[in-house]
Amino acid sequence: MNTRKVILLCVSVGALAGAGVLTVRHLTLVNRESQDFPDGIPFLCTRPECQAEFVTTLDEMSDYRMKHPEELTMPCPKCGKSDTVRAVPCQKCKHFFPRSLARRGGDVLCPQCTPTSAPAL
Ligand SMILES: [Zn+2]
Ligand SMILES: [Zn+2]
Prior knowledge:
2 domains; binds zinc ion
C-alpha cells in the first residue's frame, strides 16, 4: 500500500467517524426531553393539607406555560393552588418527594422511607 492510499483511507475513516458522532449528538438532543420523562414529569403539592402527587406531560407543561407565562410551576389538580414542586418518585415506596431532597448521584432521601434523616423543608 502506498502512502497516498493510506492517507486517503485515514481521511475517509475520520470523516465517517465524525459524521457518526454528529448524528448521535443530534439524535440525543432531539430525544433528551422525552427520554428523561417517558412517563411524564412528577409534581408534588407542598400544601400540608393536600400533598397531592401528580404527573404532567411535557406537552401539558409547555401548553400551560404558554398560557400562564408568569407561573413557575404547574397548578395542583387537587387543590388548584400553585404550591407545587418538581418531584422525584421514590424507588422504594413509590411516593413522590420534592426534587430538592434528592441527592446528587442518584441516591435519594425519601421522607417517607427515611423520616429521621430527611432535612426539614
Ligand atoms: Zn394541592
Ligand atoms: Zn420512599
